[in-house]
TrEMBL record, chain A:
Protein name (record): C-type cytochrome biogenesis protein CcmI
SUPFAM superfamilies (UniProt xref): TPR-like
Localization per record: Cell envelope
Signal peptide (UniProt feature, chain positions): none
From TrEMBL, chain B:
Similarity remark: Belongs to the CcmF/CycK/Ccl1/NrfE/CcsA family.
PANTHER family: CYTOCHROME C ASSEMBLY PROTEIN-RELATED (PTHR43653), CYTOCHROME C-TYPE BIOGENESIS PROTEIN CCMF (PTHR43653:SF1)
Membrane-crossing segments per the record: 6-26, 38-62, 96-113, 125-142, 175-195, 207-229, 249-266, 273-292, 312-331, 352-374, 394-413, 425-442, 448-469, 489-512, 618-638
Reported function: Required for the biogenesis of c-type cytochromes. Possible subunit of a heme lyase.
Pfam families: CcmF_C (PF16327), Cytochrom_C_asm (PF01578)
Organism lineage string: Bacteria, Pseudomonadati, Pseudomonadota, Alphaproteobacteria, Hyphomicrobiales
Membrane topology: Multi-pass membrane protein
Organism: Ancylobacter moscoviensis
Domain Cytochrome c assembly protein: 89-295
The name this protein goes by in its record: Heme lyase CcmF/NrfE family subunit
Occurrences of domain Cytochrome c-type biogenesis protein CcmF C-terminal (ranges): 315-640
Keyword terms: Cell inner membrane, Cell membrane, Cytochrome c-type biogenesis, Lyase, Membrane, Transmembrane, Transmembrane helix
């Protein structure tokens, strides 16, 4: 509200700047002297000054006389012009009215219009000091992170700080930072399932959805801490699938589905994954409450109709990006192995085979790399 | 303060500027005093809004308001307060706003102190000023808006380019802009005169002080920029013929010509039409300079491609103002009355020579700077026009300027006596010969031209003194009278002589530095030393330090000459963490008028560090000379007398019968 009042006052000042001088003339201020008359005034001043200079002895009598003659000549010329310039101004009232209307309507219309187009009047100012002092809430995430970062800079061994900030990094897509924060939290606070799965998930997302060896190790560590951790189990299943072991993936997911409470949010994803590898959802284990409703048919149908396409679309995009990157710089053996796995998972055996061939060409002189490529090709059943 | 207030103030300023363009000129055309009277009020209100807008932006920078995109891109909360303030104009958008602020302040000054101007002229001048403001505000608001906000606001900014984190940024751009924009006033006067079709006597009175003000600021701005580049870039050079430097040099040449031709116009009512043209050229080149620096039009054609809207906008502004004013000039100049005539050998003649040489120099720089750009745009060929071209063209043009400089003030108006002037300069000439001989003896076998150059510089400096002596009449009249006359001399005479001496001093520094500088480059370990120019620099220690937003490695050198301790020099390499960008902080020690310059290079294997050291004899004179020039301009500016150039009566008559003078014949 205050802002709008300020805007109005400023606009008012601009309008007044036009209206005020118009009015003062109407009130009877004499018209300006003509240009030639002003010239004459200047010349008369010059004459007076020459006289002063001569009296002060700054110029000789002769020079003074010459200068006076010079000025006198200019005066004669100016007087002649002044006579010609006595034209009166007509239509003054109409012009003034027009000017007033332009000021009254044009200024607000133009300034207001352009400002509404360009400005952000509803967005308050955000001086840094004020943001840092404000009570912490979830609205200013940038400041939240900044505070934690400042704190961690001063106390680099505060594992809690890393644990707080890591998931926020993940949410903002700062995956490098997220992975580093989770690692620090694990180093300082010890391993537990949440931290390890957080690390594994960050690494997996960073690798474009492929569970790398490092990520896999993290998920395994999570299971070591909590054998039932559903997220770690899901991703380990995914790792098995990407390693070309659909049967094992199906087994892991089957067990996960069997262990999960019937309303677990991840069940849809797990069942869909199982369908992908051709495993049938395992029957409810004996210990489960009999007659507990499983996900009904509609749920499954909805999940299947909605996600698989989108999911595979997304994965495919990631894999293609990886492929482009490797085409530009082929010296990344991990990248090639990931690409082979990824094509295999997507059911593109030919592409996986082609990737293996290209990788071999790139690492023709590297025995170790060749060995790994061949081993993976055998594992995925691509022939060699 | 809410950034939106600044944004709205800027938009409102545009509306006001449009009215300021339209109403007073309309009033002047119809002879309506009321409409003309609107001009000054609007100019003041305009200055108020622009100041408010600028203050808001500075506040956003000081408070690190990262909801403003411009602040995010160019500031960092860890920056010291001074650099948070200067960062406001250390970027394209902010610097454009500073430009408009200076324009607004100058416009307000015309409105406040233009009371004795003919109403019509004043109205037209303010109208033309308004049109310049409209063009710049449209450019800012539509293509370079500093008030654009960003949601959500980041918690930290990207920091200012480290090279700009220096006191130089606080001083250099504002000075340069005061110079550039100062020429907008003379431009406005010139165009106003063309619109009206007549050149008033008041016109001449007003153009000289404004041209002088702009010129003095521009001189300081260029010198400051040169010194800044000298100590911050770490190469030890003080002029690189870089396009950005050339951009400021062109208006300087045109402006220098302008202040001289304005003198002729004021005193002798001559060269009016030419002065109008120079006023237009000086501002046109200022516009070009502004845009060259900030938009990178020059350094790369591709900037146009990268941001077409901005490039096309700039081009349109340039075409409108330069093309428009020149067209108006072509149309109206023939109707302007030419001034008095004069003999080739006269004060006017000397000033015409000065004008011709200076404009030729400006043209040479213009061609050398823009030709590569035009060529690249035409067929993609990349060529570089380097120092050899500029030294040959500008250098050769400046030689006669320097040589003729002491002669001009000694010649009489209308018709002068060259032999007489030469005779009076014999003392200066003799002194110059002595200086040249001394220089030749001192350097042993150095560059052949150096003693000649030193002699020329001495000639210019002493020649400036001779003028004062001659005016006072020392040696011709009794000593007491001469002193009385010395005291009575107008300040503009002292100012002119001072500025001319400044040129000579500047020349002295340039020639000494280029001819006799010494350089030493070596990898040095702690405890080892390096010899340059007779000084022994020993690296005492290397220590890491840290500042608010950087870390650096500082080398501390002790300086000895012939075993005698002279002092220490600290030179460092800085790494600015936010942008991960290194800068060199050269260590400079001033010894008398000369300087030792040490710049630290990379760390070499084995604990050594690359060190580049220079001995720069008399180098400070380059900038000292420029400051003296500007002081001369300021001194001349305080002389607010009306001046009429009195032609000297013909000799044979005046000597006998001074009371019976025949005035010089009219034109």
């Amino acid at each position: 509200m205050l802002l709008w009042i300020a805007f109005s006052l400023m606009t008012g000042a601009a309008i007044l700047a036009v209206l005020w001088p118009l009015r003062s003339v109407a009130a009877g201020v004499p018209a300006a002297a003509s240009a030639a008359e002003a010239d004459l005034a200047v010349y008369r001043d010059q004459l007076a000054e020459i006289e002063r200079d001569r009296e002060a002895g700054l110029i000789g009598a002769a020079e003074g006389e010459a200068a006076r003659t010079e000025v006198a000549r200019r005066i004669l010329r100016a007087s002649a012009e002044a006579e010609q310039q006595k034209a009166a101004s007509k239509g003054a009232d109409t012009r003034r009215r027009a000017a007033a209307i332009i000021a009254l309507i044009g200024v607000p219309a133009m300034a207001g219009g352009l400002y509404l187009f360009l400005g952000s009047p509803l967005y308050p100012p955000q001086p840094l000091a004020q943001r840092l002092e404000a009570r912490p809430d979830q609205t200013d995430i940038a400041i939240l992170i900044r505070k934690v970062e400042t704190h961690l800079e001063a106390n680099p061994n505060d594992g809690r700080g890393y644990e707080v900030v890591a998931p926020i990094y993940s949410r903002l897509g700062r995956l490098d930072d997220a992975a580093r924060a989770w690692s620090n939290a694990i180093r300082l606070l010890g391993s537990n399932a949440t931290r390890q799965t957080g690390l594994g998930e960050a690494l997996t997302t960073q690798a474009g959805g492929v569970v790398t060896a490092e990520a896999k190790a993290a998920f395994q560590a999570a299971l070591a801490a909590d054998a039932k951790d559903p997220k770690a189990r899901y991703f380990l299943g995914l790792a098995a699938e990407q390693d070309g072991k659909p049967a094992e993936a199906g087994r892991i997911w089957g067990a996960l589905a069997a262990d999960s409470p019937p309303d677990a949010p991840w069940l849809g994803l797990v069942r869909e994954s199982m369908a992908r590898v051709g495993a049938t959802p395992a029957p409810a284990p004996a210990g489960a409450v009999a007659g507990a409703p499983g996900p009904n048919a509609a749920d499954v149908a909805a999940a299947e109709s909605l996600t698989p396409e989108q999911r595979s679309q997304m994965v495919r995009g990631m894999v293609e990006r990886l492929e482009t990157r490797l085409a530009e710089d082929g010296n990344d053996i991990e990248g090639w192995l990931r690409l082979m796995r990824a094509w295999n998972v997507l059911g593109e055996a030919e592409k996986a085979k082609a990737a293996a061939g290209e990788a071999r060409a790139h690492f023709a002189k590297d025995e170790g790399a060749l060995g790994r490529i061949d081993a993976l090709a055998r594992e995925l059943g691509l022939g060699s | 303060m809410n950034p939106e207030i600044g944004h709205y103030a800027l938009v409102l300023a545009l509306a006001v500027a449009i009215l300021q363009t339209a109403l007073p000129i309309w009033g002047a055309r119809t002879g309506d005093a009321a409409l003309m009277r609107v001009g000054p009020v609007l100019a003041l209100v305009f200055a108020g809004f622009v100041s408010l807008s600028f203050a808001t932006l500075v506040t956003a920078y000081v408070q690190s308001d990262f909801s403003v995109l411009n602040v995010v891109e160019n500031s960092h909360s860890a920056k010291p307060l001074l650099y948070r303030i200067t960062g406001t104009w250390g970027n394209h958008e902010g610097s454009m706003l500073l430009w408009v602020l200076v324009l607004a302040i100058f416009g307000a000054l015309v409105a406040l102190f233009g009371g004795n101007l003919p109403a019509r002229l004043k109205a037209n001048v303010l109208g033309v000023q308004g049109s310049v403001a409209v063009a710049f505000l449209l450019f800012i608001l539509l293509t370079s808006n500093p008030f654009i906000r960003v949601v959500p606001a980041p918690a930290e900014g990207q920091d200012l380019n480290p090279i700009l984190q220096d006191i130089g940024l606080a001083i250099h751009p504002p000075l340069l802009y005061l110079g550039y924009v100062g020429f907008s006033i003379t431009f406005a006067f010139a165009v106003a005169a063309l619109i009206e079709g007549r050149l008033d006597a008041a016109w001449a009175r007003w153009v000289r002080p404004w041209a002088l003000t702009a010129w003095a600021f521009l001189t300081l701005g260029i010198a400051m920029g040169s010194y800044w580049a000298y100590y911050e870039l770490g190469w030890g050079g003080w002029w690189f013929w870089d396009p950005v430097e050339n951009a400021s040099l062109m208006p300087w040449f045109a402006g220098t010509a302008l202040i001289h031709s304005a003198v002729v116009m004021e005193k002798r009512d001559a060269l009016k039409v030419w002065t109008v043209l120079l006023a237009i050229l000086a501002f046109s080149l200022s516009l070009l300079g502004t845009f060259l620096v900030r938009s990178g039009v020059l350094t790369s054609v591709h900037v146009f491609a990268a941001d077409p809207s901005r490039g096309v906008f700039i081009l349109a502004i340039l075409i409108f103002f330069i093309g428009g004013s020149l067209a108006l000039y072509a149309l109206r100049a023939p109707t302007l009355r030419q001034g008095g005539i004069f003999a080739p050998v006269s004060r006017e003649g000397a000033l015409v020579l000065n004008n011709l040489l200076l404009t030729a120099a400006a043209a040479a720089v213009f061609v050398g700077t823009l030709y590569p750009l035009a060529l690249e745009a035409y067929n993609g060929a990349k060529i570089t026009v380097g120092p050899p071209y500029f030294n040959l063209t500008v250098g050769v043009l400046m030689l006669p300027v320097a040589f003729a400089m002491p002669f001009g003030p000694l010649l009489a108006w209308k018709r002068g006596d060259l032999a007489g002037a030469a005779q009076r300069l014999m003392a200066a000439f003799g002194a110059a010969l002595v200086v040249a001989a001394l220089a030749a003896y001192a350097q042993g076998g150095g560059p052949v031209l150096a003693p000649f150059g030193m002699g020329l510089a001495a000639f210019v400096i002493i020649g400036a003194g001779v003028e004062i002596f001659e005016r006072a009449g020392f040696g011709r009249v009794p000593l007491a009278t001469a002193f009385a006359r010395l005291r009575g001399l107008p300040r503009s005479v002292f100012g002119g002589a001072l500025a001319h001496a400044g040129v000579g001093i500047c020349l002295l520094g340039m020639i000494a530095e280029t001819s006799w500088n010494a350089e030493g480059v070596a990898g040095v370990r702690v405890g080892q030393s390096l010899n340059v120019g007779g000084y022994e620099l020993t690296l005492d220690r290397l220590e890491p330090r840290s500042g608010p937003n950087y870390r650096d490695l500082t080398g501390v050198f002790s300086v000895r000459r012939g075993g005698v301790d002279v002092g220490t020099i600290e030179s460092s390499k800085r790494l600015f963490t936010a942008r991960n960008m290194p800068t060199t902080e050269a260590g400079i020690r001033t010894l008398g008028l000369s300087q030792l310059y040490v710049s630290l290079g990379d760390e070499l294997p084995g604990g050594a560090v690359g060190v580049r050291a220079y001995w720069k004899p008399l180098v400070t004179l380059i900038w000292l000379g420029a400051v003296i020039m500007a002081l001369g301009g300021a001194l001349s500016l305080t002389d607010r007398r009306l001046r009429v150039g009195a032609p000297k009566p013909a000799k044979n008559k005046s000597a006998k019968k001074p009371e019976n003078v025949v005035p010089a014949p009219a034109e």
